[in-house]
Amino acid sequence: MLTTSEFRLSEIIGKGYDEFWNCEKRYRVLKGGKASKKSTTTALNFIFRIMKYKESNLLVVRQVMNTHRDSTFAQLKWAQEKLLVSHLWYNTVSPMEMTYIPTGQKILFRGFDDVLKLASTTVPKGYLNFVWIEEAFEIPKESDFEKLDLSVPRGKIPENLFKQTTLTFNPWTDTHWLKKRFFDAPQHNCETFSTNYLINEFLDKTDIEVFERMKNTNRRKYEVAGLGNWGISEGLVYENWEIGVIDIEDEYQDDYKNFFGLDYGYSNDPTAFIAFKVNPKIKTIYVFDEFYKKRMLNCDIAEEIKKRGYATKIKLTSTLG
Q: Where are the alpha helices (DSSP H) in 120-234?
């Protein structure tokens, strides 16, 4: 026998997400730092929505299909328990899907590692009008997103429903296509949101201390993982750098040695070349020339190096790895 329970929804969701929760625009895009409640709030929102809109269905997408089980699937199952409605849902992992028992509405899980299969996703009842792309930052190509966007959701839906694609992610670098497409200029029928740990009232003292320590020891990472700002938090070898031209005094000329670096690429990654001076005594590196370009053949690389005047100065050492 199906039963219902009463509770105060605001006590479960907490603060900071009212506009996100109620947004009905075609695109709902949320970037946030760690512990910002973005994934858990989104999971709660979709369980609530499926139960509210009786003909709605949800497609949940990540870059790799097998990452759902310990992320989105677990989060949506947690949301069912948190909303005290677990008894109204039937969840399976093979196939991975969730069914709202009273109506047969579905939550389906797919991966961008099979984009063509995404286009043929259908539901037995109602309309596939909701899409959630979790960790959208993992999607390297905007073209993959567009293939999904042209396929799901699509078609006419009843007036009591609305179509929406929700994207949630951590903004690890400001060169990602997500920033240019959704954040750099206002988009029609799109709402963007930014959140961070400071609005998460469910964190305890020890959780806050982790971010405060990060703030003092790794400011760049704190900006992204803590505050949810665009940037690069990992993979930088040097952080104490600046742009400018150095004036090397005559007495230090001999201390600087010229070096050249070349990293081969072609289709996905560019070929990268740098020319730089190093002074080991004062631990200074000065990069004075560079080029980055895709689809360069060996002859193209050689010609570019010659054009820049380094042909007689370079000794190349090849390493395989």
A: 142-151, 177-178, 205-217, 219-221
Residue 254 tokens read as 């001999």
Question: Do residues 39 and 187 both lie within one domain?
Answer: yes
| 39: containing domain | 13-204
Q: What is the mean pLDDT of residues 103-108?
A: 97
More confident residue, 22 or 253: 22
Last residue of a domain, one of 204, 226, 241: 204
Q: How confident is the model at residue 212 (pLDDT cuts 50, 70, 90)?
A: very high
Active site residues: 135
How many separate domains does the chain show? 2
**What single-letter amino acid sits at 23?**
C
Type of residue at 233: S
Q: Of 204, 234, 259, which residue sits at a domain end?
A: 204
Q: Is 63 domain-assigned?
A: yes
Q: With contact defined as beta carbons under 8 Å apart, do 97 and 72 qualify?
A: no
Beta bridge partners of 59: 108, 131
Distances (CA, A) of 247 to 120, 258, 275, 279, 287: 62, 15, 17, 13, 13
Structure tokens at 205: 């003292």
- In this structure, is residue 215 part of a structural domain? no
pLDDT 10s digits, 51-71: 999 999 999 999 989 899 999
Is residue 118 within 8 A of residue 112, CB to CB? The reply is: yes
pTM of the model: 0.72
Mean pLDDT (the chain, rounded): 88
Distance (Å, whole) CA 201 – CA 218? 24
Chain segment 247-285, per-residue pLDDT in tens: 777 666 788 888 898 988 887 778 999 988 898 888 888
Quote the radius of gyration of the chain (alpha carbons, Å).
25
CA distance 155 to 44: 26
